[in-house]
Amino acid sequence: KAGVTQTPRYLIKTRGQQVTLSCSPISGHRSVSWYQQTPGQGLQFLFEYFSETQRNKGNFPGRFSGRQFSNSRSEMNVSTLELGDSALYLCASRGDTLSSYEQYFGPGTRLTVT
Amino acid sequence: AQSVAQPEDQVNVAEGNPLTVKCTYSVSGNPYLFWYVQYPNRGLQFLLKYITGDNLVKGSYGFEAEFNKSQTSFHLKKPSALVSDSALYFCAVRDMGGGQNFVFGPGTRLSVLP
Prior knowledge:
The complex is a heterodimer. Chain A is mainly beta. Helix content of chain A is 0%, strand content 53%.
């Protein structure tokens, strides 16, 4: 099976702009989670979607949002970008049930906000 | 709330020597425990997991981990380190009694010296 794919891999945006990142999970996986990775804060959970419904949400401001489509592909959006949003954004997919165990990660999207 | 600690930011070991990367956790329910490895500019790769059963679990690339419930630990081990094992290692827990989110530790950078 093909792995988790994320597009784009690299992105440079200006403060105040908005950005949309895309994630395609492993075929058959219905759960998609998003994480923000920074050197200072480590890996922080943003949100998880399962069958187009947000199941869990981390402690991030409302500028961070996401959605999942019927084909399980997911997008996350960050509006009004701030310098502190510069990070590696990782997407991970899990299996076809809520009890599926391990997550499989994509290569990430490196967002730089200037 | 669940949490994961990795007490060492950096672990240095000589090639051929055994390695240990430490992890302790705190959860309200039964823990599902995971180890992931991250190479530069890559997403996280799954190494192994503990769900239930034998306290010693074996994973990819010769790694193993020992679950110790009384010490709430899940240390990662390998009998003989390779230079190619040099990477960033993350311990993670999924609290099956709580929100079932994955919580990651801060990461431990392993350097295997030739």
